[in-house]
């Protein structure tokens, strides 16, 4: 698995129920444009606002619909036993990968995090992508990632949603350097190109929900060594990533951008998240017009 992976939004109706038809439409669109992977129950998908039953339902429905891309399911929780349950479910329905962010709320040291991931790796067979997102959960250090990668063959890679080129560099050199098949993805649109330059494998980036053509064009140009063109697309992504600075949350930023670009997904977030108002929507409109025309 390499390339452009989309951390999918979860579409909701006005009563906060899951909008299944919008989900189906969006998955069809993303596969038609040629993204390399679909990641359901992601941070962008508001997984912390979903019940266990809803997360399983989305994972199952996504598995039925995704046939042209790699299929990844988020199985994070603050409970190790719940992570095992969700990861086994992802394995049983035929997902290609499980993505697991560290436990949140409770601060844990590297030994506790190693025990957490070890338990999941030993109780399941599905390939696991670690998810380093220190703004929301316990951070994964480079030594910890390396220890897990070298100890467990089914720990297959890491998504790095961290604003540190040096950290990503060290993961690529120190972990991928010793285990060539270990995949390293950025979770930040603005770091897509430099992650590829350093030797990473792609990106799992939320703006690809509404502008996957930019991410795919950058990937293609880089693979074909048309670097000046890749630079141009990277500059677009750098500007697009400012959508996160305008909005109050990832979910609000992406769903407002999607509504402005004509997607049928409603600008509805589940509480406790709240949608930003018209002033923020107008700022996002100006940003999108300036970058995408």
From TrEMBL:
Protein localization: Cytoplasm
UniProt entry keywords in alphabetical sequence: Lyase, Schiff base
GO molecular function: 2-dehydro-3-deoxy-phosphogluconate aldolase activity; 4-hydroxy-tetrahydrodipicolinate synthase activity
Gene Ontology biological process terms in this record: small molecule metabolic process
Alphabetical list of PROSITE patterns matching this protein: DHDPS_2
CDD domains tied to this protein: DHDPS-like
Organism in which the protein naturally occurs: Thermococcus barossii
Source taxon at top rank: Archaea
Protein name: Dihydrodipicolinate synthase family protein
One Pfam family per UniProt: DHDPS
Oligomer and partners: Homotetramer.
InterPro entries per the UniProt record, alphabetical: Aldolase_TIM, DapA-like, Schiff_base-form_aldolases_AS
């Amino acid at each position: 698995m390499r390339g452009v992976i989309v951390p999918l939004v979860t579409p909701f109706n006005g009563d906060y129920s899951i909008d299944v038809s919008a989900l189906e439409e969006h998955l069809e669109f993303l596969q038609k444009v040629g993204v390399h992977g679909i990641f359901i129950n992601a941070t962008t998908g508001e997984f912390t606002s979903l019940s266990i039953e809803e997360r399983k339902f989305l994972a199952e429905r996504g598995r039925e619909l995704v046939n042209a891309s790699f299929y990844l399911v988020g199985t994070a929780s603050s409970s190790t036993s719940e992570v095992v349950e969700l990861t086994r479910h992802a394995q049983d329905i035929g997902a290609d990968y499980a993505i697991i962010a560290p436990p949140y709320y409770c601060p844990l040291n590297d030994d506790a995090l190693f025990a957490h991931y070890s338990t999941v790796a030993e109780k399941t067979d599905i390939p696991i992508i670690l998810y380093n997102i220190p703004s929301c959960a316990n951070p994964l250090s480079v030594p910890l990632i390396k220890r897990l990668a070298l100890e467990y063959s089914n720990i297959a890679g890491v998504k790095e949603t961290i604003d540190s080129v040096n950290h990503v560099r060290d993961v690529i050199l120190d972990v991928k350097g010793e285990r060539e098949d270990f995949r390293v993805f950025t979770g930040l649109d603005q770091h897509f190109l430099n992650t590829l330059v350093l030797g990473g494998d792609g990106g799992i980036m939320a703006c690809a929900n509404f502008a996957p053509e930019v991410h795919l064009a950058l990937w293609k140009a880089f693979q074909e060594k048309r670097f000046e063109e890749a630079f141009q697309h990277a500059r677009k992504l750098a500007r697009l990533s400012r959508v996160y600075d305008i909005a109050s949350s990832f979910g609000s930023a992406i769903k407002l951008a999607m509504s402005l670009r004509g997607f049928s997904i409603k600008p509805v977030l589940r509480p406790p998240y709240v949608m930003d108002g018209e002033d923020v929507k107008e700022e996002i409109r100006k940003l999108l017009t300036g970058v995408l025309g």
